[in-house]
């Protein structure tokens, strides 16, 4: 606890420095359309925070993006396990996952808007963005499993469920944790971008779209800070969870 406190104290001057830079940029540019000061941004954030619509949009976006992220986490682990076990699965799945990793988010968003209702858009986009990250990390973790441990387990006829729990899961946990903490940031970026492109009502992306249409930079900055905070909280929640699992 003390270590975290001292780290926060050490980081405070860095935050203060960038706030000064931000304030200085707003003072020099003198255009509320291009940039607004931290004071204006946080004042607007507190105003928005007092409205039900603000929390409703956050709840909607959070629920959908989290759903897509968790689906990708589960699917990525399962697909990686199948590819590691069966060569035919690897030949079939690997090219598809590589394509998912290469196709731009904008292309997926437009295709998704043609295929199904926009309310499911951020779920789908978060899923296809995070899936390759989880898949490749998990596959790398499986390949890193000690062959000596597996050989010893086979010699002593250790049951399969025990091998999975005591060997594979212990080896895989850091790789999956890394994929999850990295992927959650990508899930937020891609999910919000999809909501913005699709103008999905009642979401953070739709509010960003409105701010853009009306050139309301204060709202744009306020919503952006909310996104950053939510992403940070989710990432740290995952770090805490996987920290307990790995121990």
Q: Name the shape in a single word.
A: elongated
CATH class of the largest domain: Mainly Alpha
Number of strands: 0
Compute the number of helices: 10
Main sheet overview: none
SS class: mainly alpha
Helix content class: over 70%
Per the CATH scheme, the topology name of the largest domain is MetI-like fold
Low-confidence stretches: none
Cα distance spanning the termini: 18 Å
Q: SSE string, helix = H, strand = E?
A: HHHHHHHHHH
CATH homology group of the largest domain: MetI-like
CATH architecture of the largest domain: Orthogonal Bundle
What is the total domain count?
2
Computed over alpha carbons, the radius of gyration is 22 Å
* Mean pLDDT over the full residue set: 86
Strand percentage lies at under 5%
């Amino acid at each position: 606890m003390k270590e975290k406190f001292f780290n926060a104290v050490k980081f405070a001057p860095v935050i203060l420095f960038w706030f000064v830079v931000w304030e200085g940029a707003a003072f020099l540019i003198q255009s509320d359309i291009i940039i607004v000061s931290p004071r204006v941004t946080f004042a607007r954030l507190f105003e928005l925070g007092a409205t039900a619509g603000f929390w409703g949009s956050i709840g909607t976006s959070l629920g959908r993006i989290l759903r897509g992220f968790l689906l990708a986490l589960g699917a990525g682990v399962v697909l990686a396990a199948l590819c590691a076990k069966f060569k035919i699965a690897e030949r079939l799945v690997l090219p598809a996952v590589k394509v998912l990793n290469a196709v731009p988010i904008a292309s997926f968003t437009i295709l998704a808007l043609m295929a199904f209702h926009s309310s499911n858009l951020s779920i789908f986009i978060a899923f296809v963005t995070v899936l390759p990250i989880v898949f490749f990390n998990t596959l790398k973790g499986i390949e890193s499993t000690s062959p000596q441990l597996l050989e010893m387990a086979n010699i002593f006829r250790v049951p399969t469920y025990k091998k999975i729990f005591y060997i594979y899961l212990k080896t895989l946990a850091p790789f999956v944790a890394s994929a999850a903490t990295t992927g959650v940031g990508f899930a937020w970026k891609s999910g919000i971008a999809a909501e913005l492109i699709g103008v999905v009502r009642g979401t953070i992306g739709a509010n960003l779209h409105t701010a853009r249409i009306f050139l309301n930079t204060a709202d744009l900055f306020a919503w952006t800070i909310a996104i950053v905070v939510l992403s940070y909280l989710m990432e740290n929640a995952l770090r805490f969870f996987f920290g307990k699992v790995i121990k």
